[in-house]
Amino acid sequence: MRDHVRTADGRQLRVEVSGDPGGRPVFLLHGMPGSRVGPRPRSMFLYQRGTRLISYDRPGYGGSDRMQGRRVVDVVQDVTEVADALGIDRFAVAGRSGGAPHALACAALMPARVTRAAALVGLAPRNAEGLDWFKGMAPSNVNEFRTAFTDPERFVARLIPRSAAIRRDPVRLLEELRHDLTDDDRQIVSDNTIRSMLLRNYREALRTSPYGWIDDALALTGNWGFDPADIRVPVLLWHGVKDVFSPASHSSWMAARIPRATAVLEPSAAHFAALRALPKVLTWLLADVPVWPAHRRGRPVSVSAALPPSGDGRPQAPASA
Fold it and tell me: Does residue 305 carry a pLDDT above 80?
């Protein structure tokens, strides 16, 4: 199984494939900061559902070379090259948090290859008309995103030493976030399996440089390079209503503009609850009929969908590479 892909412009992308080698393929695009070893369901869950899960480090993270000045839309070429290298023609794609807009870019610009797309706890474009982009967002995130947008040089200067400190001790990132976590999120990140997985994910994300994180933030607050309204494949937008890192209003805004979107807003959930929702999202991605109720365009569904049982569906720390 290939663990590196060389792009047409000479960059190297680090790839990880898990689950059923002959299963139906799903690209899982990680958060920010994140890496290919980020949260995923147990291997048994993937095998039982005939799922082949493909993850890769976005440029600048982990084992992937940097692509300076990249935009969100640039993910399309990288996913294309990884899929081609693995001999995959059609696939579903999911993205969590900072990976969610990247998943939507694939849905918008690869309609002949993407079957379905899911965006979990994602952001809307910075220039989203009619959306108060910062409303409901934690002050720490407001400060970081606003600085990235208005003073990128200052943002870079601040993030470089912060990334170095987190690389040495990934617990620092969870401690930085703790003040803004809901009780439910605190419980999720305190689970030993999930915590171990998150810490390994953060360490790998920043192992070689801070520039994956830097370039992600600049890309997310810049021009994405595509219009979500152009997406024509089925899309699932999942969001916890109590999320203060990427407010649920962003998914509501997206739902009003993506023609074939199903929005699920979980009233009691926040940001890290997306880890628990991921197994069910994968089931939706590979199903012929959505398992969540549909809604009219522009009117997201508010539900308390039962989470998958712990067992095989729980996120699991991947085996050491």
Answer: no
Q: Is 51 left (phi over 0), alpha (psi -120 to 50) or beta?
A: beta
Give the whole-angstrom CA distance, residue 49 versus residue 286: 9
Q: How many residues does the chain have?
A: 321
How many percent of the chain have pLDDT more than 70? Answer: 89
| CA-closest candidate to residue 130, choices 222, 226, 256 | 256
Q: By C-alpha distance, which of 91, 136, 90, 99 is closest to 119?
A: 99
Q: What is the mean pLDDT of the chain?
A: 90
Query: Helices marked H in 191-273 — which ranges?
Result: 192-205, 211-221, 249-255
Cβ atoms within 10 Å of 138's Cβ, excluding its own: 19
Q: Is the pLDDT of residue 295 over 60?
A: no
pLDDT grade for 103, boundaries at 50, 70 and 90: very high
Is 63:2 a contact under the CB 8 Å cutoff? no
| Alpha-helical regions (H) of 169-294 | 171-178, 183-190, 192-205, 211-221, 249-255, 274-285
Residue 157 confidence (pLDDT): 98
The span from the CA of 237 to the CA of 233, in Å, is 13
Contact 244, 270 (CB under 8 A): yes
